[in-house]
Amino acid sequence: MLMRTDPFREFDRLTQQLLNTTGTWSRPSAMPMDAYREGEVYVIAVDLPGVSPDAIDIDVERNMLTVRAERRPVTKADDVQMELSERPLGVFSRQVVLADTLDTEHIRADYDAGVLTLRIPIAERAKPRKIAIGGGSAHKEISG
C-alpha cells in the first residue's frame, strides 16, 4: 500500500480531476518544453514520459511546428485494484511558430527516455557572411 505524504500534490490532483484537465483531441493539454540554440542548430526538447513513439505526431506547415502526443492508459487485468493514479492521460499538444531563419526542410526528431528532441538547423541565408567590396569607380563626373 502507498502512503500519500504531500497534501498539496493531492489537492492539485483533485483540482485537475474536478476541472477535467485531461487532454482530449479537441482540447489537448500542454506539455513542458525547453527551446534553445546550440551552435548552428535550434533545439526543442519536449517532455513526453510514458508516451509510445508511435503515439507522437510532428507536423510543420509553413512556419508552424505542431507536436501532438497521446498517453494511453495501460491495460490492466480484471483483478487489479488501483491504489494511486497521478500520471496524466490523454492528448497533449504544443505549437511553436518557427522563425524564417530556420530550415524546416531538415528537422531531425529523436525520442529517448521520454524526451522528444527536435533539431532544426539555422538556414544558410540567415548565417552571417562577409560582403566583398568591388573596386573601381562607382560614379562618373559630369562636365557642363
Describe the structure.
By secondary structure, the protein is mainly β. The chain has a domain at about 25-75 and about 85-125: Immunoglobulin-like. The chain is about 10% helix and about 35% strand. The protein has 1 helix and 7 strands, in the order αβββββββ. The protein has one helix spanning about 5-20, and strands at about 35-40, 40-45, 55-60, 65-70, 90-95, 110, 115-120. The strands form 2 sheets. It has a 4-stranded antiparallel sheet with strand order 1-2-7-6, with no helix packed on it. A 3-stranded antiparallel sheet has the order 3-4-5, with no helix packed on it. The longest helix is centred in the first third of the chain and has 13 residues, at about 5-20. It is rod-shaped, with a radius of gyration of 25 Å. About 10% of the residues are buried. The model has no long low-confidence stretch (mean pLDDT about 80).
Task: Note the quaternary state here.
Answer: single chain
Question: What is the CATH third-level topology name of the domain at 27-75 and 87-126?
Answer: Immunoglobulin-like
Distance between the termini: 103 Å
Kindly provide the name of the CATH class of the domain at 27-75 and 87-126: Mainly Beta
Helix content: under 10%
Mean pLDDT, to the nearest integer, reads 79
How much of the sequence lies in strands comes to 25-35%
Strands of the largest sheet, in order across it?
A: 1-2-7-6
**Structural class by secondary-structure content:** mainly beta
- SSE pattern, N- to C-terminal: HEEEEEEE
Which descriptor suits the 3D outline? Answer: rod-shaped
The biggest sheet amounts to: 4 strands, antiparallel
* DSSP E strands, number: 7
- Low-confidence segments, ≥5 residues, pLDDT <50? none
**CATH-defined architecture of the domain at 27-75 and 87-126:** Sandwich
Q: Note the total helix count.
A: 1
Q: Round the Cα radius of gyration to an integer and report it.
A: 25 Å
